[in-house]
Design a protein that fits this description.
Strand order of the largest sheet: 3-1-2-4-5-6-7-8-9
Number of strands: 9
CATH class: Alpha Beta
Order of helices and strands: HEEEHHEHEHEHHEHEHHE
Shape: globular
Structural class: alpha/beta
CATH architecture: Alpha-Beta Barrel
Oligomer: single chain
Number of domains: 1
Amino acid sequence: MQPSFQELHIRSVDAGHLLGRIHSFETMGTVDGPGTRFVIFMQGCMFRCKYCHNVDTWDLEAGKLYSVGELITEILPYIPFIDASGGGVTVTGGEPLLQRQFVRVLFKLLNFQGIHTCLDTNGYVPPNQYDEELDQFVRCTDLFLLDIKQMDEAKHIALTGISNEHPLRFARYLHEKKRPVWVRHVVVPGYSDAPDDVRRLAEFIAPMDNVKKVELLPYHTLGAHKWAACGLEYPLAGVEPPSAAKMAELKVIFDEFGLAATVC
């Protein structure tokens, strides 16, 4: 018999010394994995994406500290909606892999109850951290939403401030571990919309049978006001979202490789 959620809350006391820095919650998310989802935005990120709509999650020391038990308490009222829709809990950010020990304990408790777990990530794992602890983490994560922003190294650095070695290494690792992945690619005019670059992405993921879906996300400016609120100049001012025709053109490239690409 599976433990009740109240029993899981008691078990989480054993991990009470673990605290996670949380930016915010979205209680009825519908775009971060299958079904209706409780979405947890972790605080802290090493990427500096020019189009980031969560720029207020960058600071590693900001946010509010929560124990795993406190998060379970937040999730509990939404379990009926999650169950009815075939949804689950998604942890995003920021970059949740920066706090993966905390997220692993949360996910293990959710696993016990049969709640679907999903991680939305840039794949930021330093090379020396590919170890047994990471293996344990990926085993309790049911689905990965992996953002691959640009296959060209120089263009990736120009867009994010970080090398693309991190997401590409993590993608290969998830393939090796046979963990289900949805690849996400944000289409930013002038930065990540060149057909040759997109074709390189399709070629990279085509052999990976663990990639179940590709989501093409058109760049938008909905987060620009957060840059201003944080006292930062929005670096893509004047850049317009890609046209429907451009998104359709890039989708065809993935179709040619037999990949299940959707324009979101």
